Amino acid sequence: MKKYLSKVCILVSFLCTSLSLADESIAILGTGYVGLVLGAGLAECGHKVICCDIDESKITRLNKGIMPIFEPGLEEVVQKNFENERLFFSNNINEAIQNSDIIFIAVGTPTGADGCTDITALEKAFDTIVRLSETPKIVCIKSTVPIGTGKSFSRVIASHKKEHILSLASNPEFLREGSAVYDFFNPDRIVIGSNNTTVAERIKNIFQPIITPEVRVITTDITTSETIKYAANAFLANKISFVNEIANLCDETGACMADVELGLGTDPRIGPHFLKPGPGFGGSCFPKDTTALVTLAQTHGVQLKTVKAAIETNEHQKRKALIVAKDMVGTLKDKTVAILGLSFKANTDDIREAASLIIIDELIKAGALVKAYDPMAMEHTKKIFSDIVYCSSALGAIDGADVLIVLTEWPEFKQLNIKEICSLMNDSNIIDMRNIFNKDALATYAKRCYVVGCGTKLRNEPYDQ
Ligand code: UGA
Fold this sequence. Notes:
The chain is an alpha/beta fold. Helix content is 46%, strand content 13%.
């Protein structure tokens, strides 16, 4: 009886949630970062969601509860909604399309050889939807797509004479890797691009449970929605390249970058976020989207000089640690270099476009012995660099090193004791590209040190005097 009552309670609570929402069945094509977080998030909002992917092994693993990516909190949300039968995983894309009212496309849109965005997978998914749809559906593009994709997809719908059943919408994603689940439930804005107010309203309704009074819902046309996504990423990339240049200036002048950051960030017109200097921006978005935007603008005869400059600065910044290391020890040949942090930022195992890839490659070419440690990203890195030494702890990597380079701001690195680090190293040259170490301790114990935005002059005299 007790068991029965608890089942009823679950059913009632599910019905209550469902009744407060529009009765939409949702399919998501593409179960990568964006698609999986979206699917899990919408299921948690009370919707019935089917996540599809052409990668059969990924779907098989998801059905067994194995996550394809590391993302804090994701496994719990997926598991809960999978067990509650609100979240499903399938390879049967055709069936998912037939049985859904709203279909999100969240497939990858990588950079093609010419710098343009490769939308082959997106076109394929869209083509399948157009061909198979016999009942009214909204196709909502989640993937980051070249500006103008919506317009050309509308023409495809018209050419199949399916305007009466298929409506197009754009709903760009603003999640950050490493905090994607948190970001899903705490958005600052939801952008909906559609040329039809009813369609926009239906998309808005499915997000209703997470729309608090603070959340700005911006409804606009599809081309503008596509532009917002690229403009946001290009602006943030510019902000980072700007602070990296100012940090480089602080290195030379002796100004304190941390105070510059505070002085800038407290101006509400600038804002406190994205002002941290580092080893350059990486990941699957900023590098790809800035390049794509510059290339796309060129096809329209528009020069995005500021975005180009951000990319150029970033290329330089990714090599900054190498320049500093050479200044410190002269030749890197036969030197042992410890790398702490391989992922492009903390809380993710993603190494795409990470500074670590360039640094390790150059170190190998220079004849250095590389010892690396990362709490999450070593498996991915092993596929690219099989010959370097992977260590099971930060101290293991540091042991016997001539140079230590910190590339990722993992919380566990912040706990390391500088005195202990220096005593373990063969020659204590420390390069902190994330400004995570205690500067007084570095100045006291390290033979030579560099902290991004603070330069090498942490002591009263430069290290080489
Ligand atoms: C970025 C955007 O922040 C998201 O809003 C967007 O949805 C996403 O791209 C996307 O287009 O899908 P993400 O690439 O996951 O998210 O990571 P970010 O947290 O933005 O960091 C990007 C890079 O900038 C990292 O290498 C990070 O270390 C670097 N960064 C960030 C800095 O060097 N300094 C900062 O102050 C902030």
